[in-house]
Specification:
The complex is a heterodimer of chains A (about 300) and B (about 400). With about 300 residues, chain A is an all-alpha fold. Chain A is built from 14 helices and no strands. The longest helix of chain A has about 35 residues. Chain A is flat, with a radius of gyration of 25 Å. The N terminus and C terminus of chain A are likely disordered. Chain B has about 400 residues and is α+β, with helices and mostly antiparallel strands. Chain B starts with a strand and ends in a 9-residue tail after the last strand. The chains are: A mainly alpha (about 300), B alpha+beta (about 400). Chains A and B meet through helix 9 and helix 10 of A and strand 6 and helix 2 of B.
Chain lengths: ~300, ~400
């Protein structure tokens, strides 16, 4: 799609040899530029993958080489044996799954209430939620830390999970989506005898699948990659998540030397779940869109 | 089964707007009543108050013997069909139809039997497993009907159920809804802005305007005896010609002057509407249905003639509409303009009104298709005087008994 500029459209009639040649040159230049940009973006990722299969001396001597020699899986063995890698994975999975599922549920409940239920202070509540979106997360780190301490959730799963359970952006997305659903569908369900929760659960939620998928992906990715919050909500190493563990590896606290292969092996493994999620849902998202166009 | 009674029902919004004012009417058990009127007349609001989707600000709604003002929609035992069908897109046709039964905890076997019966009535049998998006507009409309029918409710409420269909399908579904309603004998309130739908479907028709009930009667009666200028202009297509006229006493009765023409009103008519005698000398509105204008010679009996130049004709096969420019003052009060459904026509007329405070009016005549009429011809039109309508210009009310 980005090649559109260089493509010969069906309407452009090449009248002379010259214009054909000119077009060909333009196309070549465009593609060369795009390829160059693509390489700049992909290169760091390639280096990470390749380096994780290098030995330590090889990585130090030849950090930018695109082929490990010799090929070695030492880094992965080390991660498994010397580090608490599996513990980090476990913590990350627990936190991410709890946050993701509860967030989808709570965001949609809140979004539905803001979109459809009439109650005093609804406008104010929504304005407050929008305002929260405008505050950079970093600003809130210290206050969050203080509150988590005060509530006795520090250094505990609850402190890591509960503050992440609802996010303003998710509520906002859900509210907007619910508002796009025709009211008459819900009225029809009301006349059919459904309660408010039943309408939400059996009618509105299934209709909101595209929005739910969006929230699911955003939440999964967000909590899987979250670092700041885990730093302020827990300190014991038994509660280290992948992000925290890998960050400690990277900041060199845990050993000598640069240990590129070890750090990058951890990073690569960490990327897999999110990448897999996108892979799975990519098709789902596209399906949703094509369904929407047909109607 | 149950009738519906509305007593002094009003809907007043927070900002003080009255969407419906003091509505009083009775829908008899098994009857199909149509609420009709231009958009914003309160017909849908009235329906939604019966359904329980809209709070009733004042007055009382009864379904059967129960006052339902404070009952939730689900406890009123009504079923509703929406303009956009409001199907559940993620459910199959069978699930859509069966949803209400599921909510009411009807046993599975019975639910399946009722869903199949309903599908049979509506010819949806082979589509039960499909999703709404795989259906055509007409089929979706049927599913919406099916959802209402399967409940076997006391009352059907239909909010412009046919306006999303194309013209041909609309006519077909119109007949089908009438048939099903007659077959099931379920009390029905049907809302539409389309006066043809209202006339063809309603046992009785309630005409609303700006939240006020104008007239509530059988369609034929509505057509023959409109109670005011608005109803007269609203019901019938093409709309009734409205001309300003004056009544004058003559030797043997009363003469009606329209422009330069004058017509001696038949004694029969005067006997029927003695109140005409109270309006002598003052301008009144005279309504002439297009079919009350004919070529002279085709009609014998009480007739007088209007003369004018033909501006245009529309040959419709079964009839021929001739637009004739005559010397007369058109009645262009709001009651009339609002009654003309075709907003474009209303705008044209309003423009005319803004221009020359005209003494020329265009009347529509519904002629026999064999009539030899061409544009720019001078045409003589015989007026069937027994079918004239008279209205007080100040109050807009019909001058009747």
């Amino acid at each position: 799609m980005s090649a559109g500029t260089g493509m010969t459209g069906p309407r452009s009639l090449p009248t002379t040899e010259q214009s054909i040649r000119r077009q060909r040159i333009a196309r070549t230049l465009t593609y060369s530029f795009l390829i160059a940009v693509a390489i700049v973006y992909i290169f760091p990722f390639l280096i990470a993958v390749v380096t994780s299969f290098k030995t330590e001396p090889n990585a130090t001597a030849d950090p930018l080489a695109l082929w490990p020699s010799p090929v070695s899986t030492d880094a992965f063995h080390q991660l498994y044996q010397d580090q608490d890698f599996l513990l980090w994975v476990k913590n990350s999975v627990i936190v991410t799954l709890s946050v993701t599922f509860l967030r989808v549920f709570l965001d949609s409940l809140a979004g539905y209430a803001l979109a459809r239920l009439h109650f005093r202070g609804r406008g104010l509540a929504f304005a407050a939620i929008v305002a929260v979106m405008a505050v950079p997360g970093v600003v809130l780190l210290i206050p969050k830390f203080l509150m988590i301490r005060q509530l006795g959730m520090y250094d505990h799963y609850s402190g890591m999970i509960i503050p992440l359970l609802v996010d303003a952006a998710g509520v906002f997305i859900m509210k907007n989506f619910f508002e796009s659903i025709p009211v008459s569908v819900e009225e029809s369900a009301r006349i059919d005898g459904a309660s408010i929760f039943r309408i939400y659960w059996s009618i509105v939620l299934p209709m909101a699948r595209p929005a739910l998928v969006t929230i699911f992906i955003l939440s999964f990715q967000g909590s899987w990659n979250e670092l700041g919050h885990f730093i302020i909500s827990a300190q014991s190493s038994s509660l280290n998540t992948l992000t925290k563990g890998v960050a400690q590896l990277a900041s060199g606290q845990l050993g000598s030397g640069n240990r590129y292969p070890l750090k990058l092996a951890a990073s690569c493994l960490m990327t897999i779940p999110v990448a897999a999620l996108f892979f799975v849902f990519q098709r789902r998202i596209m399906n949703v869109q094509s369904g929407a166009l047909k109607e | 089964m149950a009738g519906i009674t509305l007593t002094d029902v009003s809907k007043i919004y927070d900002d003080g707007t009255r969407a419906v004012s003091d509505l009083n009417l009775d829908v008899e058990d098994g009857e199909l009543v149509v609420f009709v009127g231009p958009s914003g007349c309160g017909k849908s609001t009235a329906l939604r108050m019966i359904a329980g989707l809209e709070e009733i600000s004042e007055g009382e709604v009864k379904i059967g013997d129960r006052v339902v003002n404070n009952l939730r929609p689900r406890d009123r035992d009504v079923a509703m069909v929406f303009q956009n069908y409001a199907l559940y897109p993620h459910m199959t046709v069978a699930e859509n139809i069966g949803f209400a039964l599921r909510m009411r905890k009807v046993p599975k076997d019975e639910a399946r039997r009722r869903i199949e019966e309903t599908a049979k009535i509506l010819g949806l049998h082979e589509h039960l497993r499909r999703k709404p998006r795989q259906l055509s507009g007409g089929q979706r409309q049927r599913v919406a009907m099916g959802r209402a029918i399967v409940r076997e409710p006391h009352v059907f409420l239909m909010d412009e159920p046919l306006s999303n269909l194309d013209a041909k399908l609309r006519v077909q579904m119109r007949a089908e809804i009438s048939r099903i309603q007659r077959q099931l004998r379920v009390t029905t309130v049907y809302v539409t802005h389309d006066q043809v739908e209202a006339m063809t479907m309603g046992d009785r028709v309630a005409v609303l305007r700006r939240g006020l009930l104008q007239q509530f009667e059988a369609p034929q009666r509505l057509y023959e005896r409109p109670s005011n200028l608005f109803v007269a202009s609203f019901i019938g297509s093409p709309a009734m010609n409205m001309l300003e006229g004056t009544l004058e006493r003559s030797d043997d009765g009363i003469v009606c002057r329209i422009g330069s023409a004058s017509f001696a009103l038949p004694a029969e008519l005067l006997k029927d509407r003695p109140a005409l005698a109270n309006h002598l000398g003052e301008p009144i509105a005279v309504g002439i249905r297009p079919e009350a204008l004919e070529e002279p010679g085709r009609r014998n009996g009480d007739a007088g003639n209007l003369r004018g130049r033909v501006q245009g004709i529309e040959a419709l096969g079964s009839e021929l509409l001739a637009y004739v420019d005559i010397e007369a003052k058109p009645v262009l009060v709001e009651d009339v303009l609002e009654g003309i459904v075709d907003m474009e026509a209303a705008e044209d007329i309003a423009e005319l009104k803004g221009g020359a405070e005209g003494l020329r009016a265009t009347v529509v005549a519904r002629l026999d298709p064999s009539a030899r009429v061409r544009p720019d011809d001078m045409l003589e039109l015989a007026v069937d005087l027994r079918r004239l309508h008279f209205f007080d210009l100040d109050s807009g009310l019909a001058i009747a008994a």
